[in-house]
Protein 1
Amino acid sequence: NGVSAVREVLEGAIEIGVPYSTLYAFSSENWNRPKLEVRALMELLISSLTKELKTFQQNGVKLKAIGNLNDLPDNIQKTLNDTMEATKENSKCTLTLALSYGSRTEILDATKRIADQVAQGTLKPEDITEDLFSQYLYTADIPDPDLMIRTSGEQRISNFLLWQLAYTELWFSAKMWPEFTRNDLFEAIFDYQSRERRFGKTSEQL
């Protein structure tokens, strides 16, 4: 049911012209769940990627993935890489799967890479800007989200895109993800469209 929800919401996003969608599929903290559950989730991921390839191709979806992908089992990495390779020329929508992903780790990794360049003398500290820092994140080639939808009645970010969500609009749903439909997506976007995004400015400045 969760996979069906992904398909329906993705098709709904494409229908109304959303060019980028990111799905928090498996967090770095999820490895602490019972081994049987983790194994089942990994098997579901493999079967879903294989079955949904046709849907991706029909809808012009390019698949990407972010996170500590080397932590994934070898067969998952192969299936994931094969699917990304098969869809790399698609351009209607980019679907990014966050797998073994944790935003704090992402920020630490970016910081270490920048620190290494400073230590080597190839980067000056005064040249470090927000834009430059963003280029060291896993999401360097996709824009920051405009809208973050959180299902299941939870009202927290759960270590997801902490840097990228700085000015993102948040929308919460009491529905569990397998119950989420394209109409729920449309409701969230309709609500988003009614909001005033000021980015620190006043209404009069907009």
Protein 2
Amino acid sequence: MKFIDSVYIDNQVDGLTTYVVPTKIKDVITISGSMLGGAVYSKEKNSRLSPITASMLDKGTADKSKYDISNILESIGAEISFISSNHHINFSAHCLRKDLPVVVELLAEQLRTPEFSSEELSLLKKRAIANLERSKEDTKKQALIGLLGHLYPIGHINHKNTIDESIDLVSGVNLSDIKKFHQNTFGLGSINIVAAGDVSSEKLPDLIKNSFKDWGTQKLIELDKKGDANKRDRTTTSMEIKDKTSSDIYIGQTINITEDHEDYYDLMMGIYILGGNFSARLMQTVRDEEGLTYGIGSSLSGCSYGVNGHWYTWGTFAPKLVEHGIKSTMTQIKQWYEDGITEQELVAKKTTLNGLFNVSLDTTTGLVDKLLSNAEKNRKLTFLDDYHHKINDLDYQSINQSIKRHIDINKLTTSIAGSKA
């Protein structure tokens, strides 16, 4: 599809943009939206404020109990959900075309006038703490926390708290802080709403306007997006988690680029060839040829919204194979770094990534998510239309130069979590 010709954009309300994509699907509408206000916007006070606030949006409003809301949605077969990501408060809805007015009105009510009851907060905190306690046994999560805790200082957007620190933060959330966070953070200013399916390019914007037009404006804190990462060094951290049948490792390093850097797609593709899918080098060698692991991969992360990120390689190994697994993984990383990728590998992965992009547009959910992410990053629709060109124009020699330019394999951090052999 050609996005620039298929998407209707509406700005009737200042601080709120609506994107409408009519499709051939009959009677069903999928909605996805967001506003700035994720965990990084509550980090100064308590990074758990945003996720818990988002979790309370469906627990009742000033005029409706959570049971009233549930009954309304069940009676029309609709869904509304909320979640907090690192940068955004996200919401989504699914409904029949005839029920769109009810769903939009209810969505606005939940965003604008949540009840925030102390009883619901207590239940949410207990559930969140129980989930965090269980995650102490998650070797992959603990290894990632170890990596990011070493790569970034406390306060950096990409820093990750330990499980115990997160439990303390959840325990410290109170109703007064939630109400204040909601009052300051929720409102017009950065809202994007995308709808696809059997939807009118005129009706939805009018419904949105009537439900949101007189809402106040967000008062967001200023983020330090250029905060320095910790200095690169070669180090290994480990956490013992007893009685585990496997251990997880992360090998990673910060990189001084964002998604908008001219080398981003070169580096992304190079790392994808190393470990992006089942046909990537790491899976073909460490898993298929050597039989050391069921899962291994490599990725570029934390580079969105003007923040410099990192790259990592992850793998899971039996405790007695951890040392062997790390050695084998590093052999592949060194060969990838020193010899680079081949033109044949690049041709194959261009086909893969272009195909994945096309497949992501085959459902209304995938379509609205792609459009919303593009809007959140303040990109024009032409960015999506040009995606295939960005991928097809990549050159293997340029990719190899970018790998050498941005990566130093002599200063990699290794984080291990699991049982000792």
Protein 3
Amino acid sequence: MKIWIKLLLGSLIGLALGLFLPVAAQGVLDAVADVLLGIGRYAIFPLVFFSVGVGVSELRQEKRLLRVYASTFKYLALAAAVLVLIGVVSVLIFPPERVPIAVAADKALPPVSVLDGLKSIFPRNLFSVLVHGGEFLLPVVVLAFLLGVNLDFDRQLTRPIAQVFDSLSRIFYHLNSLVVELLGIAIIALASAWIMRVAHAEPGTYRQILIILAVDVAVVAFGVFPGALYLLGVKNPYRWLYAAMGPGLAGLFTGDQYLSLGVLSKHGKESFGVPRSIGSSVYAVSACLGRAGSAMVAAVSFMLVLRSYSQIEVSFLQVLWVVGFSFLVSFVLG
């Protein structure tokens, strides 16, 4: 049975169970879902580390490294810019109701520092990158990239290390494939926990903004992305959407970009035919930087907050600020 069919059936079973289970079961389901998320992400970090390292080495030998990474950042920037504009325009055309602004000093979050993030990417002890917590993939990607670039300065000397990277990449790919195969069962609990949180949440004044986001997502998924693929020469872009159903379902019900990265790594090779040298780099960078969907949600949220704070209409300069800042934020989220 195909993986996306397993995920779809598991999702439907989980949704049905979640709608009929008592509210008291939500705490247990959330705890089980948290464990299953850890299992789903079990092989991601070593898979990314060794695959990016050997992939970068192969691209450099083929003299395609700069071209592939330049294209990756170009398309990430285009996607982020287009989705931010869609989010801002949707709020301007269909302005939602203002929401009450409540400021609780005891719940204020500490400011996020980009410099602290850079310190984590380049720590004083390089080995600490490999034992970092499971929420920060970018340091692993950067180290793997640097190692991959230096794997062929003297091929006779570095060939054993390159072979180790290649072997471990294949081993963790197979381990990740096993996890993805089992995800069809785990998605039952994950979808149940997801639908219980949704069903028992009261959106209140946020209902309109959620509707706008849902419409934006539908426009992007079924209009913008297929249109972009068609312009890039794909004659039937909806077949690509069909092939991406597995990672899409995993991302929807887990909300975890790293778990869906594991599913995409398998689908990218077996459904899309993307070679490891390309997919390993593109997928890892895309999971860390230029997250267009998050940029669109940030833009919509900024617009909502600005409208709620002010009794007058949002000015053109404020709209430009939202567009620019949301775009930049998408490249530091990682």
Protein 4
Amino acid sequence: DTMRYEYYRDNGIVFEAFKAGDTDIRRENSGRNWMIGYTYLPAVKEGRIQLAELKHENPTPMQGFIFNLRREMFRDRRVRQAIGLGYDFEWQNKNLSYGFYERTRSFFGNCELEAKGLPSPAELEILNPLRGKIPDEVFTEEFNPPKTDGSGNNREQARKAIALLKEAGWEIKDGKMTDKTGKKLAFEIILHDAAFERMALPVKQNLERFGIDMNIRTVDTSQYRRRTDSYDFDMIIDLWGQALSPGNEQREYWGSKAADIPGGKNTIGIKDPAIDQLIELIVAAPDRETLVTRTRCLDRVSKSFNVSAGF
């Protein structure tokens, strides 16, 4: 017998192959496709293609624009916050995805591991010893990503971003965000799928209003793999899938040692003693209740570092 594998270099071609009956099952991750891509297909009307939304309580993967903290320009959290304000989720969801998505606000969304509200007494027992090592708002504010009215008018976000960058030592000169040495704030995002350009282009346009230059480059899969394995990038779109029982894999995602391993999963390059400590507490959790509490603490602290502008 023969088993044959077919590889497609473009997600659009994969979709066309499914519509033509060349593949049997498709997991749709495009809100635009889900809302309008199947509507007029004869196979749908005839019942040969069945569409289903399967409800579950598994952690929702975090996907977003992630910063390479190995780059000097991204090491200041205020710079990351300012750039994150360039992602107008409400406008993009309405205009590009037909309102299909809900904003990702956790690395452990859609399950009991997600941190919500302010820290509980049990969480504070873990977090209080870390005061001064983690952002103060972990204790005083519920994390919520920036929100707009969806109109595409991001003047308020621009004001906040420019203020944050000014605090971090950047000033607008000749329309460009510039530091004291005259270096302009500019970076490149590399993509391996042209479909993501629709997500990145509005961010580029918004950042231009902040005086920030963002170059978008789509490369072939092999080049993308080489560059991400060697961490030769400023920004990429990445995704983390979590389990209902987190454990050793958290060291690979966020651990300081993993940041220096070529081809590793700590693509962000985060190295932080507080996060390392929380990871070890998760790994050593003696029961489910303790595991949930400790994971929520890691979720809070990870989000407060603003390492990703999540979808």
